Protein backbone atom coordinates (compact mmCIF):
# COMPACT_ATOMS: atom_id res chain seq x y z
CA UNK A 1 0.00 0.00 0.00
CA UNK A 2 2.63 2.47 1.08
CA UNK A 3 4.65 2.03 -2.08
CA UNK A 4 1.63 2.64 -4.27
CA UNK A 5 1.02 5.97 -2.57
CA UNK A 6 4.61 7.05 -2.41
CA UNK A 7 5.59 6.57 -6.03
CA UNK A 8 3.52 9.40 -7.49
CA UNK A 9 4.88 11.73 -4.83
CA UNK A 10 8.39 10.64 -5.66
CA UNK A 11 8.02 11.23 -9.37
CA UNK A 12 6.31 14.55 -8.98
CA UNK A 13 9.25 15.63 -6.85
CA UNK A 14 11.57 14.69 -9.68
CA UNK A 15 9.74 17.07 -11.96
CA UNK A 16 9.36 20.00 -9.60
CA UNK A 17 12.36 20.08 -7.36
CA UNK A 18 15.32 20.10 -9.68
CA UNK A 19 16.22 23.76 -8.93
CA UNK A 20 17.27 25.56 -5.80
CA UNK A 21 14.59 28.18 -6.38
CA UNK A 22 11.36 29.38 -4.88
CA UNK A 23 9.84 25.89 -4.91
CA UNK A 24 11.73 25.17 -1.70
CA UNK A 25 14.01 22.40 -2.89
CA UNK A 26 16.77 21.72 -0.40
CA UNK A 27 19.33 19.28 -1.86
CA UNK A 28 21.31 19.06 1.37
CA UNK A 29 18.27 18.15 3.49
CA UNK A 30 17.27 15.64 0.81
CA UNK A 31 20.59 13.84 1.14
CA UNK A 32 20.63 14.07 4.95
CA UNK A 33 17.10 12.66 5.20
CA UNK A 34 18.04 9.71 3.05
CA UNK A 35 21.17 9.13 5.11
CA UNK A 36 19.05 9.09 8.28
CA UNK A 37 16.71 6.49 6.81
CA UNK A 38 19.74 4.25 6.27
CA UNK A 39 21.07 4.59 9.79
CA UNK A 40 24.15 2.44 9.26
CA UNK A 41 25.83 5.01 7.04
CA UNK A 42 25.64 7.81 9.60
CA UNK A 43 29.12 7.10 10.80
CA UNK A 44 32.47 8.61 10.36
CA UNK A 45 34.41 7.61 7.27
CA UNK A 46 38.00 7.77 8.30
CA UNK A 47 40.68 9.58 6.37
CA UNK A 48 42.82 6.44 6.45
CA UNK A 49 40.12 4.52 4.60
CA UNK A 50 40.29 6.96 1.72
CA UNK A 51 44.08 6.94 1.53
CA UNK A 52 44.35 3.16 1.70
CA UNK A 53 41.87 2.70 -1.11
CA UNK A 54 43.75 5.13 -3.28
CA UNK A 55 47.13 3.65 -2.63
CA UNK A 56 45.81 0.29 -3.74
CA UNK A 57 44.24 1.51 -6.95
CA UNK A 58 46.46 3.23 -9.50
CA UNK A 59 45.05 6.42 -10.99
CA UNK A 60 43.63 5.91 -14.47
CA UNK A 61 45.44 7.94 -17.12
CA UNK A 62 44.89 8.21 -20.83
CA UNK A 63 46.58 10.17 -23.62
CA UNK A 64 45.21 13.70 -23.95
CA UNK A 65 47.08 14.88 -27.04
CA UNK A 66 45.06 17.14 -29.32
CA UNK A 67 42.00 17.16 -27.05
CA UNK A 68 42.55 20.69 -25.80
CA UNK A 69 42.05 22.11 -29.31
CA UNK A 70 38.87 20.03 -29.72
CA UNK A 71 37.51 21.47 -26.45
CA UNK A 72 38.00 25.10 -27.43
CA UNK A 73 34.65 26.94 -27.54
CA UNK A 74 34.48 29.08 -30.66
CA UNK A 75 31.61 31.08 -29.16
CA UNK A 76 28.52 30.45 -27.08
CA UNK A 77 25.11 31.14 -28.66
CA UNK A 78 23.97 34.64 -27.66
CA UNK A 79 27.42 35.64 -26.39
CA UNK A 80 27.96 39.42 -26.34
CA UNK A 81 30.46 40.90 -28.78
CA UNK A 82 33.97 41.57 -27.54
CA UNK A 83 34.65 38.40 -25.58
CA UNK A 84 38.34 38.77 -24.84
CA UNK A 85 39.22 35.49 -23.14
CA UNK A 86 39.44 31.83 -24.13
CA UNK A 87 36.90 29.23 -23.02
CA UNK A 88 37.09 25.47 -23.20
CA UNK A 89 34.71 22.69 -22.27
CA UNK A 90 34.38 18.97 -22.69
CA UNK A 91 34.74 15.62 -21.00
CA UNK A 92 37.54 13.83 -19.24
CA UNK A 93 37.09 10.07 -18.90
CA UNK A 94 37.75 8.92 -15.34
CA UNK A 95 36.74 5.27 -15.76
CA UNK A 96 36.84 3.72 -19.26
CA UNK A 97 35.37 0.38 -18.17
CA UNK A 98 32.24 1.94 -16.75
CA UNK A 99 32.21 4.71 -19.37
CA UNK A 100 32.29 7.44 -16.74
CA UNK A 101 33.27 10.97 -17.76
CA UNK A 102 33.28 14.33 -16.02
CA UNK A 103 32.38 17.59 -17.76
CA UNK A 104 34.36 20.79 -17.21
CA UNK A 105 34.24 24.40 -18.32
CA UNK A 106 37.38 26.55 -18.23
CA UNK A 107 37.16 30.35 -18.38
CA UNK A 108 40.65 31.78 -18.80
CA UNK A 109 41.58 35.31 -17.76
CA UNK A 110 41.35 38.12 -20.33
CA UNK A 111 44.71 39.50 -19.08
CA UNK A 112 47.69 37.61 -17.63
CA UNK A 113 46.11 34.23 -18.24
CA UNK A 114 49.53 32.62 -18.66
CA UNK A 115 50.63 33.68 -15.16
CA UNK A 116 47.34 33.86 -13.20
CA UNK A 117 46.62 30.90 -10.94
CA UNK A 118 44.33 28.01 -11.77
CA UNK A 119 41.26 27.79 -9.52
CA UNK A 120 38.94 24.80 -9.38
CA UNK A 121 35.35 25.67 -8.43
CA UNK A 122 32.91 23.06 -7.07
CA UNK A 123 29.22 23.39 -6.25
CA UNK A 124 27.63 21.10 -3.71
CA UNK A 125 24.15 19.69 -3.29
CA UNK A 126 25.17 16.90 -3.29
CA UNK A 127 24.05 16.64 -6.90
CA UNK A 128 24.19 20.26 -8.09
CA UNK A 129 25.88 21.53 -11.24
CA UNK A 130 29.02 23.66 -11.01
CA UNK A 131 28.57 24.94 -14.54
CA UNK A 132 24.89 25.91 -14.36
CA UNK A 133 25.01 27.27 -10.82
CA UNK A 134 28.64 28.27 -10.27
CA UNK A 135 29.52 29.61 -13.71
CA UNK A 136 26.19 30.86 -15.06
CA UNK A 137 24.59 32.18 -11.86
CA UNK A 138 27.49 33.05 -9.55
CA UNK A 139 31.09 33.78 -10.54
CA UNK A 140 31.44 32.94 -14.22
CA UNK A 141 31.98 35.41 -17.06
CA UNK A 142 28.37 35.36 -18.33
CA UNK A 143 24.82 35.64 -17.01
CA UNK A 144 21.82 34.35 -19.00
CA UNK A 145 19.28 37.06 -19.88
CA UNK A 146 15.52 36.66 -19.38
CA UNK A 147 15.04 35.59 -23.03
CA UNK A 148 16.86 32.31 -22.19
CA UNK A 149 18.87 32.93 -25.35
CA UNK A 150 21.36 35.76 -24.92
CA UNK A 151 24.17 36.29 -22.44
CA UNK A 152 25.55 39.37 -20.76
CA UNK A 153 28.99 39.86 -19.33
CA UNK A 154 29.45 39.64 -15.56
CA UNK A 155 32.00 42.37 -14.92
CA UNK A 156 32.81 40.91 -11.49
CA UNK A 157 33.62 37.44 -12.85
CA UNK A 158 36.37 35.63 -10.99
CA UNK A 159 38.22 34.89 -14.21
CA UNK A 160 39.34 38.54 -14.07
CA UNK A 161 41.97 37.40 -11.56
CA UNK A 162 42.31 33.64 -12.14
CA UNK A 163 41.78 30.92 -14.71
CA UNK A 164 38.64 29.28 -13.37
CA UNK A 165 37.88 25.62 -13.93
CA UNK A 166 34.30 24.53 -13.19
CA UNK A 167 33.90 20.78 -12.66
CA UNK A 168 30.53 19.00 -12.76
CA UNK A 169 30.96 16.42 -10.05
CA UNK A 170 30.26 13.55 -9.45
CA UNK A 171 29.06 11.68 -12.58
CA UNK A 172 25.31 12.20 -12.96
CA UNK A 173 25.53 15.90 -12.14
CA UNK A 174 24.98 18.50 -14.85
CA UNK A 175 26.58 17.24 -18.07
CA UNK A 176 28.77 14.63 -16.36
CA UNK A 177 27.60 11.08 -16.88
CA UNK A 178 28.32 7.38 -16.70
CA UNK A 179 27.32 4.59 -19.06
CA UNK A 180 26.93 2.36 -15.98
CA UNK A 181 23.81 3.43 -14.10
CA UNK A 182 24.96 1.93 -10.79
CA UNK A 183 27.61 4.69 -10.75
CA UNK A 184 24.82 7.10 -9.87
CA UNK A 185 24.79 5.56 -6.42
CA UNK A 186 27.85 7.41 -5.26
CA UNK A 187 29.28 9.32 -2.32
CA UNK A 188 32.12 11.40 -0.90
CA UNK A 189 34.83 8.80 -1.49
CA UNK A 190 34.06 8.19 -5.15
CA UNK A 191 33.64 11.92 -5.74
CA UNK A 192 37.10 12.70 -4.34
CA UNK A 193 38.68 9.87 -6.28
CA UNK A 194 37.06 10.80 -9.60
CA UNK A 195 37.86 14.48 -9.13
CA UNK A 196 41.50 13.62 -8.56
CA UNK A 197 41.59 11.38 -11.65
CA UNK A 198 39.95 14.20 -13.58
CA UNK A 199 42.63 16.68 -12.45
CA UNK A 200 45.58 14.48 -13.32
CA UNK A 201 44.22 13.82 -16.81
CA UNK A 202 43.06 17.39 -17.35
CA UNK A 203 46.58 18.63 -16.56
CA UNK A 204 47.87 16.35 -19.32
CA UNK A 205 45.37 17.96 -21.69
CA UNK A 206 46.41 21.46 -20.52
CA UNK A 207 50.09 20.91 -19.63
CA UNK A 208 50.76 24.66 -19.35
CA UNK A 209 48.89 24.52 -16.02
CA UNK A 210 50.91 21.65 -14.54
CA UNK A 211 53.16 23.78 -12.37
CA UNK A 212 50.79 26.73 -11.95
CA UNK A 213 49.62 27.85 -8.51
CA UNK A 214 46.44 25.89 -7.87
CA UNK A 215 43.50 26.55 -5.54
CA UNK A 216 40.37 24.53 -4.77
CA UNK A 217 37.23 26.50 -3.94
CA UNK A 218 33.57 25.71 -3.53
CA UNK A 219 30.42 26.21 -1.56
CA UNK A 220 27.77 24.43 0.48
CA UNK A 221 28.16 20.64 0.27
CA UNK A 222 31.50 21.29 -1.44
CA UNK A 223 32.49 21.88 2.21
CA UNK A 224 33.01 18.11 1.96
CA UNK A 225 34.41 17.91 -1.58
CA UNK A 226 37.03 20.65 -1.27
CA UNK A 227 38.89 19.45 1.87
CA UNK A 228 38.65 15.79 0.83
CA UNK A 229 40.09 16.51 -2.61
CA UNK A 230 42.78 18.79 -1.16
CA UNK A 231 43.80 16.05 1.26
CA UNK A 232 44.00 13.54 -1.57
CA UNK A 233 46.12 15.89 -3.66
CA UNK A 234 48.59 16.46 -0.81
CA UNK A 235 48.80 12.75 -0.01
CA UNK A 236 49.24 11.77 -3.65
CA UNK A 237 51.84 14.48 -4.19
CA UNK A 238 53.96 12.50 -1.71
CA UNK A 239 53.36 8.99 -2.97
CA UNK A 240 52.98 8.98 -6.72
CA UNK A 241 55.34 9.62 -9.54
CA UNK A 242 52.51 11.35 -11.39
CA UNK A 243 52.01 15.08 -11.68
CA UNK A 244 52.68 16.93 -8.45
CA UNK A 245 49.83 19.40 -8.13
CA UNK A 246 50.95 22.79 -6.87
CA UNK A 247 48.13 23.23 -4.32
CA UNK A 248 48.38 26.58 -2.55
CA UNK A 249 45.08 26.91 -0.75
CA UNK A 250 41.38 26.25 -0.38
CA UNK A 251 38.35 28.48 0.17
CA UNK A 252 35.03 27.20 1.51
CA UNK A 253 31.88 29.31 1.13
CA UNK A 254 28.79 28.84 3.34
CA UNK A 255 30.12 25.37 3.68
CA UNK A 256 28.58 22.30 5.25
CA UNK A 257 31.59 20.93 7.15
CA UNK A 258 30.15 19.56 10.39
CA UNK A 259 26.73 18.07 11.07
CA UNK A 260 26.32 19.23 14.66
CA UNK A 261 27.28 22.88 14.14
CA UNK A 262 25.43 22.90 10.82
CA UNK A 263 22.20 22.06 12.62
CA UNK A 264 22.59 24.20 15.73
CA UNK A 265 23.95 27.08 13.66
CA UNK A 266 20.95 26.94 11.34
CA UNK A 267 18.28 26.88 14.05
CA UNK A 268 20.04 29.61 16.05
CA UNK A 269 20.16 31.74 12.90
CA UNK A 270 16.43 31.11 12.32
CA UNK A 271 15.70 32.26 15.85
CA UNK A 272 17.92 35.35 15.81
CA UNK A 273 16.54 36.33 12.39
CA UNK A 274 12.88 36.10 13.48
CA UNK A 275 12.12 33.06 11.34
CA UNK A 276 10.98 30.74 14.17
CA UNK A 277 9.29 31.27 17.54
CA UNK A 278 10.91 31.12 20.98
CA UNK A 279 8.95 27.92 21.67
CA UNK A 280 10.27 26.07 18.60
CA UNK A 281 13.82 27.21 19.24
CA UNK A 282 13.60 26.09 22.86
CA UNK A 283 12.01 22.81 21.73
CA UNK A 284 14.96 22.13 19.46
CA UNK A 285 17.65 23.14 21.93
CA UNK A 286 16.18 21.06 24.75
CA UNK A 287 15.22 17.97 22.69
CA UNK A 288 17.92 17.67 20.07
CA UNK A 289 21.45 16.41 20.39
CA UNK A 290 23.05 16.63 16.95
CA UNK A 291 26.44 15.24 17.91
CA UNK A 292 27.85 11.99 16.59
CA UNK A 293 26.41 8.88 18.21
CA UNK A 294 23.49 10.71 19.86
CA UNK A 295 19.94 9.38 19.56
CA UNK A 296 17.59 11.41 17.40
CA UNK A 297 14.34 11.59 19.39
CA UNK A 298 10.83 11.87 17.95
CA UNK A 299 10.41 15.19 19.77
CA UNK A 300 13.54 16.52 18.06
CA UNK A 301 12.28 15.47 14.62
CA UNK A 302 8.88 17.02 15.35
CA UNK A 303 10.36 20.39 16.41
CA UNK A 304 12.51 20.45 13.28
CA UNK A 305 9.41 19.92 11.12
CA UNK A 306 7.80 22.77 13.01
CA UNK A 307 10.79 25.00 12.32
CA UNK A 308 10.63 24.29 8.58
CA UNK A 309 6.88 24.96 8.61
CA UNK A 310 7.28 28.18 10.61
CA UNK A 311 9.92 29.42 8.19
CA UNK A 312 7.25 29.23 5.48
CA UNK A 313 7.95 30.07 1.86
CA UNK A 314 10.92 32.40 1.99
CA UNK A 315 14.03 32.13 -0.13
CA UNK A 316 16.06 29.98 2.23
CA UNK A 317 19.38 30.77 0.51
CA UNK A 318 19.06 34.55 0.89
CA UNK A 319 16.43 35.25 3.51
CA UNK A 320 15.60 38.84 2.50
CA UNK A 321 15.53 38.21 -1.27
CA UNK A 322 12.29 38.03 -3.26
CA UNK A 323 11.12 34.71 -4.70
CA UNK A 324 10.89 34.21 -8.43
CA UNK A 325 7.28 35.14 -9.13
CA UNK A 326 5.24 37.36 -11.46
CA UNK A 327 5.84 40.12 -8.87
CA UNK A 328 9.59 39.71 -8.52
CA UNK A 329 10.40 42.47 -11.01
CA UNK A 330 8.39 44.98 -9.01
CA UNK A 331 10.29 44.07 -5.83
CA UNK A 332 13.88 43.53 -6.94
CA UNK A 333 16.35 42.26 -4.37
CA UNK A 334 18.71 44.68 -2.65
CA UNK A 335 21.58 43.41 -4.76
CA UNK A 336 19.64 43.61 -8.02
CA UNK A 337 19.98 39.88 -8.56
CA UNK A 338 17.09 38.51 -10.61
CA UNK A 339 15.55 35.66 -8.57
CA UNK A 340 14.30 33.99 -11.75
CA UNK A 341 17.85 33.58 -13.11
CA UNK A 342 17.86 29.82 -12.65
CA UNK A 343 14.87 29.47 -14.98
CA UNK A 344 16.77 31.34 -17.71
CA UNK A 345 19.78 29.07 -17.16
CA UNK A 346 17.55 26.00 -17.38
CA UNK A 347 16.12 27.25 -20.66
CA UNK A 348 19.51 28.23 -22.10
CA UNK A 349 21.40 25.08 -21.17
CA UNK A 350 18.67 22.88 -22.62
CA UNK A 351 18.96 24.54 -26.02
CA UNK A 352 20.50 22.00 -28.45
CA UNK A 353 22.75 24.63 -30.07
CA UNK A 354 24.12 25.59 -26.64
CA UNK A 355 24.85 21.99 -25.69
CA UNK A 356 26.51 21.53 -29.09
CA UNK A 357 28.73 24.60 -28.67
CA UNK A 358 29.78 23.31 -25.23
CA UNK A 359 30.72 19.90 -26.70
CA UNK A 360 28.21 18.38 -24.28
CA UNK A 361 26.24 15.21 -24.88
CA UNK A 362 22.61 16.05 -25.72
CA UNK A 363 20.80 15.65 -22.38
CA UNK A 364 18.02 17.09 -20.28
CA UNK A 365 20.24 19.33 -18.19
CA UNK A 366 19.20 19.96 -14.57
CA UNK A 367 20.50 22.39 -11.96
CA UNK A 368 20.51 19.62 -9.33
CA UNK A 369 20.09 15.88 -9.75
CA UNK A 370 17.66 14.75 -7.09
CA UNK A 371 18.50 11.04 -7.46
CA UNK A 372 22.22 11.58 -6.88
CA UNK A 373 21.50 13.21 -3.52
CA UNK A 374 18.89 10.63 -2.56
CA UNK A 375 21.25 7.72 -3.16
CA UNK A 376 24.30 9.29 -1.54
CA UNK A 377 26.27 6.46 0.10
CA UNK A 378 28.96 7.86 2.34
CA UNK A 379 28.91 11.20 4.10
CA UNK A 380 31.06 11.63 7.18
CA UNK A 381 29.32 13.70 9.85
CA UNK A 382 32.27 16.03 10.01
CA UNK A 383 35.25 16.96 7.87
CA UNK A 384 36.79 19.15 10.58
CA UNK A 385 39.68 16.67 11.15
CA UNK A 386 40.50 16.92 7.42
CA UNK A 387 40.42 20.72 7.62
CA UNK A 388 42.74 20.60 10.65
CA UNK A 389 45.16 18.45 8.70
CA UNK A 390 45.11 20.96 5.83
CA UNK A 391 45.64 23.86 8.24
CA UNK A 392 48.76 22.19 9.57
CA UNK A 393 50.01 21.39 6.05
CA UNK A 394 50.93 24.99 5.33
CA UNK A 395 48.43 25.68 2.52
CA UNK A 396 46.12 28.63 3.06
CA UNK A 397 42.66 27.75 4.39
CA UNK A 398 39.87 30.32 4.13
CA UNK A 399 36.29 29.98 5.29
CA UNK A 400 33.93 32.64 3.97
CA UNK A 401 30.27 33.25 4.54
CA UNK A 402 27.49 35.34 3.04
CA UNK A 403 25.66 36.60 6.12
CA UNK A 404 22.05 36.45 4.86
CA UNK A 405 22.12 32.73 3.99
CA UNK A 406 19.66 30.66 6.03
CA UNK A 407 20.83 27.26 4.76
CA UNK A 408 24.43 27.05 5.93
CA UNK A 409 24.45 30.33 7.82
CA UNK A 410 27.32 32.31 9.25
CA UNK A 411 26.48 31.01 12.75
CA UNK A 412 27.14 27.45 11.55
CA UNK A 413 30.54 28.50 10.21
CA UNK A 414 31.43 30.31 13.45
CA UNK A 415 30.45 27.31 15.61
CA UNK A 416 32.49 25.03 13.32
CA UNK A 417 35.52 27.31 13.61
CA UNK A 418 35.21 27.16 17.42
CA UNK A 419 35.44 23.40 17.16
CA UNK A 420 38.70 23.68 15.18
CA UNK A 421 40.36 25.04 18.32
CA UNK A 422 42.65 27.49 16.62
CA UNK A 423 43.63 30.81 18.17
CA UNK A 424 42.99 34.38 17.07
CA UNK A 425 46.00 36.16 15.60
CA UNK A 426 44.31 39.19 14.05
CA UNK A 427 41.09 40.06 15.90
CA UNK A 428 37.74 40.72 14.24
CA UNK A 429 37.70 43.86 12.07
CA UNK A 430 35.51 45.28 9.29
CA UNK A 431 36.94 45.09 5.76
CA UNK A 432 36.08 47.79 3.28
CA UNK A 433 34.90 47.78 -0.30
CA UNK A 434 34.14 51.01 -2.17
CA UNK A 435 33.92 52.99 1.05
CA UNK A 436 31.54 50.62 2.80
CA UNK A 437 31.92 47.65 5.07
CA UNK A 438 32.22 44.62 2.79
CA UNK A 439 32.05 42.26 5.74
CA UNK A 440 34.21 41.24 8.69
CA UNK A 441 37.45 39.29 9.05
CA UNK A 442 39.20 37.26 11.71
CA UNK A 443 42.72 35.98 11.18
CA UNK A 444 43.21 32.74 13.09
CA UNK A 445 46.31 30.65 13.26
CA UNK A 446 46.40 28.80 9.88
CA UNK A 447 42.84 29.89 9.05
CA UNK A 448 41.11 33.02 7.77
CA UNK A 449 37.43 33.73 8.29
CA UNK A 450 35.72 36.35 6.11
CA UNK A 451 32.08 37.37 5.97
CA UNK A 452 30.50 39.00 2.93
CA UNK A 453 27.87 41.44 4.11
CA UNK A 454 24.45 41.24 2.51
CA UNK A 455 25.21 38.08 0.56
CA UNK A 456 23.21 34.87 0.65
CA UNK A 457 24.34 31.29 0.07
CA UNK A 458 25.39 31.99 -3.52
CA UNK A 459 27.73 34.80 -2.48
CA UNK A 460 28.87 36.11 -5.92
CA UNK A 461 25.27 36.22 -7.18
CA UNK A 462 24.11 38.71 -4.56
CA UNK A 463 27.28 40.69 -3.84
CA UNK A 464 29.41 40.33 -6.98
CA UNK A 465 31.74 43.27 -6.23
CA UNK A 466 32.42 42.31 -2.62
CA UNK A 467 32.81 38.67 -3.64
CA UNK A 468 35.46 39.49 -6.24
CA UNK A 469 37.32 41.71 -3.75
CA UNK A 470 37.33 38.89 -1.20
CA UNK A 471 38.47 36.37 -3.84
CA UNK A 472 41.32 38.60 -5.05
CA UNK A 473 42.54 38.91 -1.42
CA UNK A 474 42.39 35.15 -1.00
CA UNK A 475 44.57 34.64 -4.08
CA UNK A 476 47.07 37.26 -2.89
CA UNK A 477 47.19 35.53 0.49
CA UNK A 478 46.43 38.85 2.20
CA UNK A 479 43.53 39.65 4.47
CA UNK A 480 40.97 42.04 2.95
CA UNK A 481 41.98 45.55 3.88
CA UNK A 482 40.74 47.99 6.44
CA UNK A 483 41.00 51.43 4.85
C1 LIG B 1 29.39 5.89 -23.32
O1 LIG B 1 28.75 5.20 -24.35
C2 LIG B 1 28.69 5.87 -25.59
C3 LIG B 1 27.84 5.02 -26.55
O2 LIG B 1 28.38 3.74 -26.62
C4 LIG B 1 30.10 6.10 -26.12
O3 LIG B 1 30.06 6.82 -27.32
C5 LIG B 1 30.87 6.90 -25.07
O4 LIG B 1 32.21 7.07 -25.48
C6 LIG B 1 30.84 6.20 -23.73
N1 LIG B 1 31.46 7.08 -22.73
C7 LIG B 1 32.64 6.83 -22.14
C8 LIG B 1 33.14 7.83 -21.15
O5 LIG B 1 33.29 5.83 -22.34
C1 LIG C 1 49.09 41.67 -15.26
O1 LIG C 1 50.37 41.40 -14.71
C2 LIG C 1 51.19 42.56 -14.56
C3 LIG C 1 52.57 42.11 -14.11
O2 LIG C 1 52.46 41.30 -12.98
C4 LIG C 1 50.53 43.50 -13.57
O3 LIG C 1 51.31 44.68 -13.44
C5 LIG C 1 49.14 43.88 -14.08
O4 LIG C 1 48.46 44.64 -13.10
C6 LIG C 1 48.32 42.61 -14.34
N1 LIG C 1 47.04 42.98 -14.95
C7 LIG C 1 45.88 42.52 -14.53
C8 LIG C 1 44.66 43.04 -15.20
O5 LIG C 1 45.79 41.65 -13.66
C1 LIG D 1 55.77 4.87 -10.81
O1 LIG D 1 56.00 4.63 -12.21
C2 LIG D 1 56.33 3.31 -12.53
C3 LIG D 1 56.69 3.25 -14.02
O2 LIG D 1 55.80 4.03 -14.79
C4 LIG D 1 55.18 2.37 -12.16
O3 LIG D 1 55.52 1.04 -12.46
C5 LIG D 1 54.90 2.51 -10.67
O4 LIG D 1 53.78 1.74 -10.33
C6 LIG D 1 54.66 3.96 -10.30
N1 LIG D 1 54.54 4.09 -8.86
C7 LIG D 1 53.51 4.68 -8.26
C8 LIG D 1 53.54 4.72 -6.78
O5 LIG D 1 52.59 5.17 -8.89
C1 LIG E 1 24.95 14.36 23.12
O1 LIG E 1 25.30 13.06 22.70
C2 LIG E 1 26.65 12.75 22.87
C3 LIG E 1 26.91 11.39 22.22
O2 LIG E 1 26.03 10.44 22.70
C4 LIG E 1 27.01 12.78 24.35
O3 LIG E 1 28.37 12.49 24.54
C5 LIG E 1 26.69 14.17 24.92
O4 LIG E 1 26.89 14.18 26.30
C6 LIG E 1 25.25 14.54 24.61
N1 LIG E 1 25.05 15.95 24.98
C7 LIG E 1 24.10 16.33 25.82
C8 LIG E 1 24.01 17.79 26.11
O5 LIG E 1 23.32 15.53 26.31
C1 LIG F 1 12.91 30.03 -20.23
O1 LIG F 1 13.11 28.72 -19.75
C2 LIG F 1 12.23 28.39 -18.69
C3 LIG F 1 12.64 27.03 -18.16
O2 LIG F 1 12.66 26.08 -19.17
C4 LIG F 1 10.79 28.44 -19.17
O3 LIG F 1 9.92 28.15 -18.11
C5 LIG F 1 10.49 29.83 -19.72
O4 LIG F 1 9.19 29.85 -20.29
C6 LIG F 1 11.51 30.21 -20.78
N1 LIG F 1 11.32 31.60 -21.16
C7 LIG F 1 11.38 32.01 -22.42
C8 LIG F 1 11.25 33.49 -22.66
O5 LIG F 1 11.50 31.23 -23.34
C1 LIG G 1 49.39 25.49 12.28
O1 LIG G 1 50.38 24.94 11.44
C2 LIG G 1 51.55 24.49 12.09
C3 LIG G 1 52.51 23.92 11.07
O2 LIG G 1 52.46 24.59 9.86
C4 LIG G 1 51.22 23.43 13.10
O3 LIG G 1 52.37 23.08 13.80
C5 LIG G 1 50.15 23.93 14.07
O4 LIG G 1 49.75 22.89 14.91
C6 LIG G 1 48.95 24.45 13.30
N1 LIG G 1 47.97 24.97 14.24
C7 LIG G 1 46.65 24.86 14.03
C8 LIG G 1 45.75 25.38 15.10
O5 LIG G 1 46.18 24.39 13.02
From TrEMBL:
Chief location: secreted
Keywords of the record: Carboxypeptidase, Disulfide bond, Glycoprotein, Hydrolase, Protease, Secreted, Signal
Compartments (UniProt record): Secreted
Example GO biological process: proteolysis
Signal peptide span: 1-24
One Gene Ontology MF term: serine-type carboxypeptidase activity
Pfam families assigned: Peptidase_S10
Keyword Secreted: yes
Leading EC class: hydrolase
Domain of life: Eukaryota
Enzyme Commission number(s) of this protein: 3.4.16.-
GO cellular component, one term: extracellular region
InterPro entries xrefs: AB_hydrolase_fold, Peptidase_S10, Ser_caboxypep_his_AS, Ser_caboxypep_ser_AS
Family membership noted in the UniProt record: Belongs to the peptidase S10 family.
Name of protein: Carboxypeptidase
Organism (species): Tagetes erecta
